[in-house]
Specification:
35% strand, 3 helices, two-stranded antiparallel sheet, five-stranded mixed barrel
């Protein structure tokens, strides 16, 4: 039990150090693998994410991530939207990238974010999804805009 806790703590510490050395957390999040499985519910084969230890160590942790707003309700202030490692014209929803390059974002309660085409930084709690095919594999909750140098 103690050994497992030490290993988990070490993975979290290494993940944080690794993320600080990277341009963004997307490099870590993009290390996800996918396995094709047959979905009885959908009647087709679907890709199910298989998160490695670097990613699972970040679940429930506060992370910083940079990217672009992909608005869901037009280019207005929103508290819920998609966020992409890539600009709007190259995002996952346009067919130019994979699901590991996007996440849904829920802003801190009461906060809304004005749409911009510029790259921004967000900070929030990361959630992983490997069981609901109709939702993104990553969610950022309690998100706040942060100012950070690129």
């Amino acid at each position: 039990m103690i050994m497992k806790a030490l290993i988990t703590s070490l993975i979290i510490l290494l993940s944080v150090l690794f993320l600080q050395a990277q341009e963004s957390t997307w490099r870590v999040l993009q290390t996800v693998d996918f396995e094709q499985v047959y979905s009885e519910e959908m009647g087709i084969h679907i890709d199910v994410p298989k998160f490695g230890p670097w990613i699972t160590a970040l679940e429930g942790q506060e992370i910083d991530v940079q990217g672009y707003i992909i608005p869901l309700k037009g280019k207005i202030e929103q508290s819920y939207f998609m966020f992409s490692a890539l600009p709007y014209n190259m995002c996952f929803f346009c067919g130019k990238a994979g699901p590991e390059t996007a996440m849904e974002v829920y802003m801190e309660e009461g906060d809304k974010l004005k749409y911009t085409e510029d790259k921004i930084w967000l900070r929030g709690i990361l959630e992983l999804n490997d069981n609901t095919v109709t939702s993104p594999i990553y969610t950022l909750r309690y998100a706040q805009v942060i100012k950070r140098k690129d």
